[in-house]
Design brief:
The protein is mostly helical. 66% of the residues lie in helices and 0% in strands. The chain has helices spanning 3-10, 35-65, 74-85, 95-124, 143-148, 153-182, 197-213, 217-224, 227-244, 249-279, 297-308, 317-341. Helix 6 (153-182) packs antiparallel against helix 8. The protein is globular. The protein starts with a helix and ends with a helix.
């Protein structure tokens, strides 16, 4: 597959392999109008991710936050949920991410595109910065050669960390509310603490203000720092498939998106378990949901280790791993497809 196709995948709004989407080789003002594409395409990515992945996410969160004796494993959790709550039980807490993930993926993928350009224009294309050609492994000697090369894998990884930090300020309250709704096991709605996402936000805000709604923000920022591995590996997989196979561009998007998501979860999963325990920890006070157990991140980590040992940090990993490939592959397929379809 040609280098121009590979460039179009990693930087989807390039059309000819010149990497103009990253601002390489032409004035920055000529690409400013393209920033909107990443944000629009991210909306479609969020919808695709929710449709495929939310049932897996419900099982994951329940396994992460329940007592060890409550479920024998992922299959038992699935069967108990369907038997007691119906298929709709698998989509508990779906409303926050349905709205939230559209904005979250829009912000994440839009800012990712933006940060790629910023890093390339102001750092990796700087003649004083030593860039290595990935194909030949040699140092690029001239400024023109450095400008001509695309953003390296390390640049994509750093852009991923920056995008992860940016989207965390939207993701934290969305995931917080989602998690609290997902662990409401009562079939009778009158027995649940929260009747829905709006009620959940309203009650938490009334009892604890904005800090209560943003409970778990620091854990979210830490968790999303592992986007370094997601977007770094996405670039590597994309490069491999585009240069070593005859796969079509959408197929490359699908496989690179799915496999890079697996890499991300393999590296980040223990931090996600801690994050979920913090987000489902009672807030206490006038909310009346119990007594708070984990005032700090390390308190949640210590409790998981004390109760379940190292394996406690991997509870719920199987449904998460099974979800990661199809959900994120479809999300990135949708994202890249919309990026190519949108006008300049």
């Amino acid at each position: 597959m040609s280098s121009s196709v590979q460039s179009a995948i990693v930087n989807p709004d390039t059309k000819d392999g010149s990497n103009e989407a990253l601002g390489q080789g032409q004035p920055a003002r000529s690409v400013q109008h393209k920033n909107y594409k990443g944000f629009v395409a991210g909306v479609f990515s969020g919808i695709a991710k929710l449709s495929v992945g939310h049932p897996f996410d419900t099982i994951k969160v329940r396994l992460q936050t329940s007592e060890k004796t409550q479920f024998k494993g992922p299959l038992d959790c699935l069967l108990q949920t369907v038997r007691k709550e119906g298929v709709r039980g698998l989509y508990k807490g779906a409303t926050p991410p349905l709205v939230g993930w559209m904005f979250m993926d829009s912000i994440m993928l839009g800012s990712l595109t933006f940060y790629r350009r910023i890093l390339n224009d102001n750092w990796f294309s700087n003649p004083s910065f030593l860039v290595f050609n990935r194909a030949s492994k040699r140092k690029l000697d001239t400024a023109s050669e450095q400008v001509a090369t695309k953003l390296p894998t390390f640049g994509h990884a750093i852009a991923g960390v920056m995008a992860g930090a940016t989207v965390s300020f939207i993701a934290a309250p969305v995931e917080h509310i989602k998690a609290r709704l997902q662990i409401q096991y009562a079939v009778d709605k009158s027995q649940r603490l929260y009747s829905g996402p709006i009620d959940c936000i309203r009650r938490i805000f009334r009892a604890h203000g904005v800090p209560g709604v943003y409970h778990g923000l620091s854990a979210t920022l830490l968790f999303r720092s592992f986007f370094f591995f997601w977007w770094g590996s996405y670039d590597l997989f994309t490069h491999f498939f585009s240069t070593s196979t005859n796969l079509s561009t959408p197929a490359i998007n699908f496989w690179a998106g799915g496999l890079s998501a697996q890499v991300f979860w393999l590296t980040s999963y223990p931090s996600d378990v801690i994050k979920q325990r913090i987000m489902t920890d009672p807030l206490g006070g006038s909310l009346g949901d119990g007594e708070r157990q984990f005032p700090r991140w390390k308190d949640a980590a210590r409790e998981i280790w004390r109760r379940d040992g190292p394996q406690g940090f991997w509870r719920g990993f199987v449904p998460c791993f099974l979800r990661a490939f199809p959900a994120n592959a479809m999300a990135l397929l949708a994202f890249e497809g919309v990026m190519r379809a949108l006008p300049e």
